[in-house]
């Protein structure tokens, strides 16, 4: 049996059964209509960022290409004879009645046409019939074994419906429960004491046959959660646009601005604006409004009322722009924001109030005014910092992105060589400086563009200095490879908040927005896929968000309009729905400044873009939205289950989505959401459940109003 099990495991891993890595070979076929001369066809879709993938003509006259894709929905079009079909489901020129007969439908392409939609098939259906149970479990992978909340999480995956029950055998039997269900697989899980070292897994398959797997060894040092993150309410502060608490330092912004160092600069010179002045040219970068650290101190009572106990600061250090991502001095607070002494005072006050703080770190690139880059500008190859950057030619004009590598090819953001040991040591010293200064964690900008060997070294040294430091990487999609215990503790969880690739899944935002593709079944299945791919330790300290300084305002994304528009009651209801769902997820719930006021803001046209970063007009804060966020903050802190790392799928049908939080028998909450406009009924698990907002107890079923939500706590 063990030899057969190993063979099955090898086949499963080869096929990529593990959700985060699985791939299925999919053949796309274009069969031209009679009489159409076809010279070229390529496949372009959500899975390859709409790049060209040539298709080959077969002897039968059809065009084909095979692609390995993960399970889930994909959107695509065939690019035929250098033209896009307008509608992949109905185009008289390129196909009748449907361009791709294998498509399962079509969705709006955002250009007035229709993309084809296909659901990549179930992995379980791709497996050979071996006569054995396809159980996947590898204790050395954190996805299956990790530590959070003082317990070991042990999990395995099997094809959906393949087993009836499971038990983990160690010093005593530990029943394993079905945790996550998706179309292609399911995850079973048990929480164990830290004392367990060896174990076996015993299952009863759907035919009633008992099988035992193991023995397995718990890793000596399993990936462990930073437990203080669990259940936190996080607030993101973009300093220049939060509040101006000290107008005397406003003009300091002009002293180090990018235009002083960029010799290619032809735009408007940096300038100061009053707090309610409209967005002007270079609103993103060189229009300064005067927000500062004194403004944060002045508004702490607002944050306390929201239940905030985690603050994420956008860049605080000396730089050349309002956004601060072009660092000039990594160990000096930007003079326009205050100074190091004021930051020390602020951190001490936040610590006194029980608020943890993380700072934005930009190790991928510097600004033009950074002293190392300026040394290269002046000395060329004679500079000891020549190999800190990627210089293509010298001498060069600072700001000329053709002469050296810059982030996104921008000459204002010269890229650091993070594979250089000297650069690594420098950035590690900077990080240690700020941890010793009083910060509790670090968010790393564009983490996917930094040398992995640097991140591993950086993490090891910071964890040795401060084991409970919280390290977050800016990575926008599902990337478990960064979360194996050697790089980051969490990624910015846009995958849960806004969905990922393919765009047919929109995460919490997509569900709150509604529509046929964002039904409960699809979105809950996507959440299950994420929580199966990530270790439970990562879920416990997830940096969960829907919007940030890099996205449109959540309310705008939910139909609330642009910067100067008044949102409709329905848009505000959808914002309440989205935020309630965000707060119910394991880990920290993080929102961008102003979301709690129901502010709107869209992406504008360059150079007047990023209107979601407009200064907070506090006097226009919507009281009803603020009360909602204050309620969520209280509930996040009061509900014991929200401190748990455990997320379990429960029920999804139509507009309904419901999941369970907390350990069975210890404290459970059923979180339920309705993205439809009509009232629906929710079937409750066995027992009595109390709505934590209204205080009323329910049994068997409960109603959910249109665009409504409930947190229901199991009564003992």
UniProtKB/TrEMBL annotation:
Its EC number is 3.2.1.135. InterPro entries: AMPK1_CBM, GH, GH13_cat_dom, Ig-like_fold, Ig_E-set, O16G_dom_2. It comes from the Bacteria. GO terms for molecular function: neopullulanase activity. Residues 236-636 form the Glycosyl hydrolase family 13 catalytic domain. The keyword ATP-binding does not apply. Keywords: Glycosidase, Hydrolase. This is Neopullulanase 2. It comes from Meiothermus hypogaeus. The gene is tvaII.
């Amino acid at each position: 049996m063990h030899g057969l099990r190993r063979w099955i495991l090898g086949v499963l891993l080869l096929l990529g059964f593990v959700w985060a890595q699985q791939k299925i070979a999919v053949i796309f076929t274009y069969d031209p209509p009679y009489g159409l001369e076809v010279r070229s066809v390529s496949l372009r879709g959500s899975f390859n960022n709409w790049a060209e993938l040539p298709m080959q003509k077969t002897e039968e006259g059809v065009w084909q290409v095979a692609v390995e894709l993960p399970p889930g929905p994909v959107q695509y079009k065939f690019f035929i004879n250098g033209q896009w079909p307008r509608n992949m489901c109905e185009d008289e020129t390129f196909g009748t009645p449907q361009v791709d007969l294998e498509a399962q439908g079509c969705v709006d392409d955002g250009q007035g046409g229709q993309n084809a939609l296909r659901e990549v098939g179930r992995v379980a259906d791709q497996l050979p019939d071996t006569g054995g149970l396809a159980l996947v479990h590898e204790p050395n992978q954190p996805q299956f074994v990790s530590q959070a909340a003082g317990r070991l999480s042990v999990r395995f995956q099997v094809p959906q419906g393949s087993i009836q029950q499971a038990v983990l055998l160690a010093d005593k039997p530990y029943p394993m429960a079905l945790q996550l269900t998706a179309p292609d697989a399911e995850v079973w899980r048990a929480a164990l004491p830290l004392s367990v070292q060896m174990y076996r897994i015993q299952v009863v398959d759907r035919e009633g046959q008992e099988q035992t797997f193991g023995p397995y060894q718990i890793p000596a040092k399993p990936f462990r959660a930073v437990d203080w993150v669990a259940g936190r309410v996080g607030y993101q502060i973009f300093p220049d646009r939060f509040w101006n608490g000290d107008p005397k330092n406003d003009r300091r912004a002009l002293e180090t601005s990018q235009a002083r160092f960029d010799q290619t600069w032809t735009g408007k010179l940096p300038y100061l604006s009053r707090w309610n002045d409209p967005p002007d040219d270079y609103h993103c970068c060189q229009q300064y409004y005067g927000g500062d650290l004194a403004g944060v101190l002045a508004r702490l009572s607002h944050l306390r009322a929201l239940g905030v106990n985690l603050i994420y600061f956008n860049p605080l250090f000396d730089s050349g722009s309002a956004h601060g991502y072009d660092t000039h001095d990594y160990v000096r607070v930007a003079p326009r924001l205050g100074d190091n002494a004021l930051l020390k005072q602020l951190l001490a006050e936040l610590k006194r109030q029980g608020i943890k703080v993380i700072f934005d770190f930009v190790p991928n690139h510097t600004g033009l005014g950074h002293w190392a880059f300026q040394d290269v500008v002046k000395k060329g190859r004679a500079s000891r910092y020549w190999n800190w950057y990627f210089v293509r030619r010298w001498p060069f004009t600072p700001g000329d992105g053709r002469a050296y590598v810059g982030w996104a090819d921008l000459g204002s953001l010269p890229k650091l060589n993070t594979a250089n040991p000297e650069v690594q040591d420098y950035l590690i010293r900077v990080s240690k400086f700020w941890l010793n200064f009083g910060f509790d964690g670090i968010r790393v900008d564009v983490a996917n563009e930094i040398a992995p060997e640097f991140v591993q070294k950086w993490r090891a040294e910071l964890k040795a200095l401060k084991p409970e430091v919280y390290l977050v990487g800016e990575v926008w999609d599902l990337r478990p490879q960064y979360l194996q215990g050697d790089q980051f503790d969490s990624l910015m969880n846009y995958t849960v908040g806004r969905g990922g690739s393919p765009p047919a899944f929109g995460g919490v935002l997509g569900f709150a927005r509604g529509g046929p593709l964002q039904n409960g079944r699809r979105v809950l299945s996507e959440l299950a896929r994420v929580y199966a791919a990530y270790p439970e330790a990562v879920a416990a300290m997830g940096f969960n968000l829907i919007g940030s300084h890099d996205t449109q305002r959540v309310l705008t994304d939910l139909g609330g309009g642009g910067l100067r528009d008044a949102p409709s009651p329905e848009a505000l209801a959808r914002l309440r729905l989205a935020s309630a769902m965000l707060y119910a997820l394991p880990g920290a719930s993080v929102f961008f400044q102003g979301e709690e006021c129901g502010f709107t803001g869209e992406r504008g046209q360059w150079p007047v873009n990023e209107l979601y970063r407009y200064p907070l007009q506090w006097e226009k804060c919507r009281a009803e939205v603020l009360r909602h966020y204050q309620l969520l903050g209280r509930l996040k802190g009061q509900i014991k289950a929200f401190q748990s790392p455990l997320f379990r799928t429960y029920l999804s049908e139509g507009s309904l989505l419901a999941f369970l939080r907390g350990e069975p028998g210890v404290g459970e909450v059923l979180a339920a959401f309705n993205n439809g406009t009509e009232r629906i009924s929710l079937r409750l698990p066995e027992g009595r459940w109390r709505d934590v907002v209204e205080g009323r107890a329910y049994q068997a079923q409960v109603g959910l109003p249109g665009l409504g939500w409930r947190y229901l706590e199991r009564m003992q």
